[in-house]
Design brief:
2 domains, 13% strand, globular
Length: 167
């Protein structure tokens, strides 16, 4: 798993091999990169991944996004996950979403619901891939001696207006 530390030092910033480099940039470019992401390395990687002609890596259906000593699970939103009780998918960027849980639903209940959904043969294969990836991440974290799962609240703003169904 990308987040799990393999030794001393800081946790991995990226989910693939990386190394430190020194680069000299104009101040205005540094300011623009800093506005895109407070971490200049992530801003540069994001820009490079959007460059035309680059063979893009296929995003995993669910993966850990790390920052410092913390990580969150980013998922490809699928219907089977969004329909689970107590689950809200919060869009972040690039077609990815965070999983937010309504109270009193917790991580343990989510893991059980994911396993139940995986046993349901009517769940489409694409959805099943995402659910399995999330299940694997949660199980790996639960069994890890280096990680713990902590539930946090996030602020989600909801529109009071209801969308009208199209006729």
């Amino acid at each position: 798993m990308a987040f799990e530390k393999t030794g001393r030092g800081r946790p991995r910033k990226f989910d693939r091999p990386s190394r430190p480099v020194t680069v000299t940039l104009p101040e205005d470019v540094i300011a623009r990169l800093g506005a895109a992401d407070g971490d200049l390395g992530r801003a540069i990687v994001r820009l490079a991944e959007k460059a035309p002609g680059r063979s893009r890596q296929t995003k995993k259906s669910a993966e850990l996004f790390t920052y410092g000593r913390h990580a969150v699970i980013l998922v490809r939103p699928v219907r089977a996950l969004s329909r689970m009780p107590g689950v809200q998918l919060v869009p972040v960027s690039e077609g990815r979403a965070l999983i937010a849980l309504d109270h009193p639903h917790g991580v343990s209940q989510l893991e059980l619901d994911l396993r139940d959904a995986l046993d349901d043969k009517s769940v489409p294969s694409r959805d099943r891939t995402v659910l399995k990836a999330i299940t694997d991440i949660l199980k790996s974290c639960r069994l890890s001696h280096n990680l713990s799962v902590a539930e946090r609240s996030i602020i989600v703003l909801e529109s009071r207006r209801r969308r009208h169904a199209s006729a």
